[in-house]
Amino acid sequence: MNLIQEYLELTKVCASTDYADKKSVKTHNKSVNRMYEIAEKIGYEKTDDTIEDFAKLLDIIDNKTNLWAAVHILERIPADKTIEEKALKIIKKQSDGNTTEALGFKIWLDNYSKK
Q: I need a surface site. Which of 50, 71, 84, 114 has the fewest CB within 10 A?
């Protein structure tokens, strides 16, 4: 299985997390850590998958893959301006509203803009 395919599988795991179940949360956290590892490997060109291949994940809305990829691109991958802007747009869209998740992304964007 290539890294992009593995990443897609990990977003499925995260999408099915039962936050009332400790084991499910632990699996979720391990999956997120592995997604960061995959993003870093691709970002530092230690794989056959390219940054452009990874950026295609920004178009996949299933399991919030686009949102995960947007965060990982902005935090861990040296991407070009076009990819960076697309990732930011996805996160900004998620930050609209008054949900807890939206608030979390507002804080994330605020921290990101300070870098």
A: 114
